[in-house]
Please model this.
Amino acid sequence: ALGTFLPLSVVAGRLLGGFLIDHFWAPAVSAIILTLPVVFCLAVRTAEPSFALLAFGNIALGLAAGVEYDLLAFLVSRYFGLKRYSAIYGFMYAIFAMGAGFGPYLYGRSFVATGGYETILGYALIIIPIAAWPLLLLGKYREYPPEDEAPETGR
Model:
């Protein structure tokens, strides 16, 4: 039953994230939601986690996982405009994908080296806020003249 919380919360994260960034300043929404995996790290590092604690941790992780790609796309459009959107988004997505690809490897290496996930989850507790909170420094959305918003047609 615990395994159903993560995929359902990923879907909920996509819906909730979209709603929130339509109504609130996206960097604040991003910083809050992307910090939620800290709850998961704390839950699984507990000596004897209860079902409720693990379920809550999985929900927190799923909400963040569900919204991260959408937030990236939205923030790129608001802070870089649309003129070179695909190139900028593609570059940032590639960096994001490398992190998503190397993450499981690093967690596995940590498990092999230490016999558990406690060490890597301890690092994650520090790194997650360090990665998420600088979004609060982005400032107001940028204003672009109409000609800078139009995608290039290649003519």
